[in-house]
Amino acid sequence: MLQQGDIFFGRTVINHAAFEFTSSLLNRQINPLPVWTIALPYNIKKIQQRAFVRIDVAILVQIRAINADEMLDDTIINASTKDISGGGVQIVTGHKWPIGTKLMVTIHYPQIGSLTLKSEVVRVFQPQYELAVFWVGIRFLEIAEKDRGNIIKFIFKKQLEQRRKGWE
């Protein structure tokens, strides 16, 4: 049990973002509810909670929506990735799908080739309200581990290239 004045490390989630911090216990009470009063936190750090490393890179993608019968829509939307990971992509597009929309996403990875993956829209953000441009977060629903491994290798290679450019 912490005593008054003890320093501790904490973690909290605010608006789907996780943070670690250091603080100290000012006071605690048990009744009627357990409550800790803590000092203003310091050494606050946002922590990455993603299962896969993500990297900013622009790659051509083609997207087709899947209807309720798992049939592909005839409309193909061309877009570009904003970032990629082994678990999904974020694309930049003028098209806004509702969260939960199922998609077939074809990504044209350099050195890997094209991968077509069943996916789902998990996030939609409009960075500038005056422009009809959306950042759409897409999670891969079905992906072979071999393909995921190739994507992760591609990401690590891109990270190495970016670091080398930073050293020059």
UniProtKB/TrEMBL annotation:
Cited Pfam families: PilZ
Residue ranges of domain PilZ in the record: 48-156
Entry protein name: Flagellar brake protein YcgR
Gene encoding the protein: ycgR
InterPro entries: PilZ_domain
Keywords in alphabetical order: Cell projection, Cilium, Flagellum
